[in-house]
Amino acid sequence: MTHGRMLAVHDISCVGRCSLTTALPIISSLGIECSVLPTAVLSTHTGGFKGFTYRDLTEDIVPIKEHWKSLGLTYDAFYTGFLGSFEQIDLVGSLIEELSNERTTVYVDPVMGDNGNLYTVFDSDFPKGMRRLCEKADVLMPNLTELCFMLGMEFRSGPYTWDYIDSVFKEAEVFGLKKIVITGVSFEAGKVGAVFKDYETGEKGQVMRDVIEGYYHGTGDVFGSALVGALESGITLKDSVRIAVDFTVKSIVRTYESGADVRYGVDFELGLGEYVRHVGALKGGISLHDISSDLEISLTAGLAAKIWSEGYRDLLSKEQIDYMVNRFQSSDAIKKAIEEGYVYCLIRSGDLDIGYVGYRMVEDRMFLSKLYVDGEHRGMGVASKCFSFLKDRCREKDLNKIYLKVKRDNVRAINAYKANGFVIVDEADTPIGDGFEMNDYILELTF
After folding, report:
1. Rounded to 5 degrees, what are φ and ψ at 395?
2. pLDDT at 3 over 80
3. pTM of the model
4. Which homologous superfamily is 286-446 in?
């Protein structure tokens, strides 16, 4: 469900991308009304800077709350981060109780520590207080250090196994959560990311990406804010975690490549446009629309010309792209393919056409001839959504296999198909005329 008014309760650093200076722009970019309650004001954040100023705003929390109550304000969502004392924890807990309504969702990021250690500003009793707040949460977003301290578990360094993560999920049931996302998890050297579980549906999973060397301040706040924004927009937990991980990683990469001073946080601002598009596409819903009219065939041919020119320029020469589009992706070619038994579908996000698929049933399996998504919507999980539809169409024919061909040096596409369960079963070299040849792997999915 998409909510209207959110309250973000964090400290605010006047300089440095973290806490409220991160949460407010990221969440607001999605059109969510994000109010703020600063728990403290700092001249800079505390990572890497010396001589920063700090003003505690604990005594302002109650008067602010009472003013809001006098206005009849309630919040559809709360998002809490760093809290500096037991008193703040209790005050924020009371604020949640008094300003909630019947549809309120509570997101808690229990910022306390990392790498097996509490931050130096906290003593060993602090996790007990934070646990009280976490028991009010619907969605909890800790790292393993924070979760272990609150659960009284011994912290273990990674890489981890799924059996261990499952045991942690089981222990976390005591909070009474709807969802949990645990950050900073690694199952193998060189890969790190987040794991998640939806306690209401039982769905769980992981999103892993390559490790980027170095330490980057504020990435936890970037991830948490992106996750909360996506979830509040009605995106599934799995897709929200993927969006948040990718948004954070790309922010780190931009910072790394620019050589910027990492004390000032990561460059998330340049990624907001892509973030909004990703959330918007999935919020609108992905669907397949069977093509039948000449107008729809023409629209598909136009998409093909656009997608091929932008998506294959690093893999094929311009001459081969032009040849293949004209021979296989033109209006006449699509119309002929449909007459020969292929089914073409436009991929739609809401009312926007963002790609297309083409397939036909061949004996005991589906041949997926085409699956193309435009550049602005690539890497958003659209293909995974399409495979769900295509599996259903196979099941209607009592089939359980899909196969396709992909260029052998198209590593990005191969990895995407593998991530959706496809395996390489063969390879083929096929002359296509005019001296051109396609050198493909054949991939198959059994379900």
Report:
1. -60, -30
2. no
3. 0.81
4. Gcn5-related N-acetyltransferase (GNAT) (3.40.630.30)
